[in-house]
Design goal:
Bound molecules: guanosine-5'-diphosphate, 6-O-phosphoryl inosine monophosphate, magnesium ion
Structural class: alpha/beta
CATH class of the largest domain: Alpha Beta
Radius of gyration: 21 Å
Shape: globular
CATH architecture of the largest domain: Alpha-Beta Complex
Number of strands: 20
Strand order of the largest sheet: 9-7-5-2-10-1-11-15-19-20
CATH superfamily of the largest domain: Adenylosuccinate Synthetase, subunit A, domain 3
Helix content: 25-40%
Largest sheet: 10 strands, mixed
Distance between the termini: 6 Å
Length: about 425
């Protein structure tokens, strides 16, 4: 196997960072291809906790090159701060960190617009406030500043002017907020560009060569399929293609080359921000899961909503990305609970659905639960209790792909591989 994508199969925070860091040990390249610093990917190494937002989660592995491809929305200020933090732990030379010259830049204007909209709206999305949506809007409306523009002051000013044509009106008349002048913003971005210059390159060509040289390439998704702009619970989604489709456009690789699409799913469900969540638990056991699982957002610190495993959504996510196997994470969090349920279908307007689909109104979905026998496992070896084995088999049967990985703690060693990856 030479290429593998790690894709969140729920509403994000499934443990992609941990799995990427582990499989990154065997990879030559680890590539982020969509999203931006809305992502928060946690890696625990001994006593150290590292939360990565824009840097690929292969960055701790000296033998691999980290790539930020053109599908990413790139925030230069936050990036340099993150790099400085990581460099205290591991040295990062421009040889092993590459940023696409064609990635879209998140400017100060995008962040202000994101915050202003969320502040003013009755219909909040509950965004991370990082300017992700406004930056992708500029990309789609063909007025984005690209990373290579940071290296050319004239081009940068011209692009910022284009990007600001309509926004100036919004800031002044609609949201009534102060923003930096184009001159100030251009100066700031140009200075940042000087620091970023050694890392900026044509990552499309780099990856093309990597495939020709038979290198092992790992693609690290951000967010999850249920937050996808097309497949997700619209409008409560992020603004990028978080499904497997995003790998092809966001990193620029031919569609045939992706051999394994590994979906990451928690053994239960969490969500941060607004939007429907059919299996959200309102009883005390929901708080118990939240506490045991330390379910707080890695980027915003917000409390994550917790619920039972939602099979209709998971099954849909598997189909929407043709996932080939699953990593089931945080199984330890459910171990020892007095109760265990799984949602096997929803009722919506009197009809029963065992698989979600784009546009299914999840606000109306009433979960149908199966009560299962709770499990209590210590994960000291790979033979699990009958109850946990049944739980895993039930998931495999519902989604029709194998659970190739079981994770039972945040640390690198707390994992069982039931399938080989990158051999
Ligand atoms: P990501 O965004 O998908 O990378 O996930 P986050 O880092 O936002 O959230 C996952 C959280 O769960 C982090 O705090 C991880 O350290 C932690 N974690 C990952 N896998 C496991 C696991 O199997 N068990 C437990 N208890 N924690 C885990
Ligand atoms: P990782 O990669 C969980 C959610 C936000 C909000 C919606 C839109 O760590 O799994 P945005 O700022 O993207 O416009 O917010 O998406 N969201 C995430 N939820 N994990 C993430 O990333 C997320 N990134 C965005 O909470 O509901
Ligand atoms: Mg996260």
């Amino acid at each position: 196997m030479k290429s593998l994508a790690i894709i969140g199969a729920q509403w994000g925070d499934e443990g992609k960072g941990k799995i990427t860091d582990l499989l990154g040990e065997k990879a030559d390249f680890v590539v982020r291809y969509q999203g931006g610093n809305n992502a928060g990917h946690t890696i625990i190494v001994g006593e150290d906790k590292i939360v990565l937002h824009q840097l690929p989660s292969g960055i701790l592995r000296q033998s691999c090159t980290s790539v930020i491809a053109h599908g990413v929305v790139f925030e230069p200020v936050a990036f340099l701060e993150e790099l400085a933090k990581v460099e205290k732990k591991v040295s990062v030379s421009p040889e092993r960190l590459k940023i696409s010259l064609n990635a879209t830049v998140i400017t100060t204007y995008h962040k202000i617009l994101d915050a202003a909209r969320e502040g003013a709206s009755q219909n909040k999305i509950g965004t991370t406030g990082k300017g992700i949506g406004p930056a992708y809007e500029d990309k789609t409306s063909r007025r984005a500043v690209k990373v290579q523009d940071l290296l050319d002051m004239n081009q940068l000013k011209r692009k910022l002017q284009i990007s600001m044509e309509e926004k100036s009106y919004l800031f002044k008349e609609v949201y009534k907020c102060e923003v930096p002048s184009i001159e100030e913003e251009a100066q700031k971005l140009f200075e940042l560009g000087k620091k970023l210059a050694p890392f900026i390159t044509d990552t499309f060509g780099l990856l093309d060569q990597a495939f020709q040289d038979n290198k092992k390439v790992l693609f690290e998704g951000a967010q999850g399929i249920l937050l996808d702009i097309d497949y997700g619970s619209y409008p409560y989604v992020t603004s990028s293609s978080t499904s497997a489709a995003g790998v092809f456009t966001g990193a620029g690789i031919p569609s045939g080359v992706l051999e394994e699409k590994l979906g990451i799913a928690k053994a239960y469900t969490t969500r941060v921000g607004e939007g429907p969540m059919p299996t959200e638990i309102t009883e005390p056991i929901g708080d118990e899961i939240q506490k045991i699982g330390h379910e707080f957002g890695a980027t915003t610190g917000r409390r994550r909503r917790c619920g039972w495993l939602d099979l209709p959504s998971l099954k849909y996510a598997v189909k929407a990305s043709s996932l080939t196997s699953l990593a089931l994470t945080k199984v330890d969090v459910l171990s020892g609970l007095d109760e265990l349920k799984v949602c096997y279908a929803y009722k919506v307007d009197g009809k029963t659905y065992d698989c979600a689909f784009p546009g299914l109104d999840l606000e109306k979905a009433q979960p149908l639960y199966k009560d299962l026998s709770p499990f209590k496992d210590d994960f000291k070896n790979e033979s699990y209790s009958r109850e946990l084995t049944d739980y895993i088999e039930l998931i495999e049967k519902a989604v029709s792909i194998p659970v190739g990985i079981v994770a039972f703690g945040p640390e690198r060693s707390q994992i069982h591989f039931r399938k080989e990856y990158f051999q």
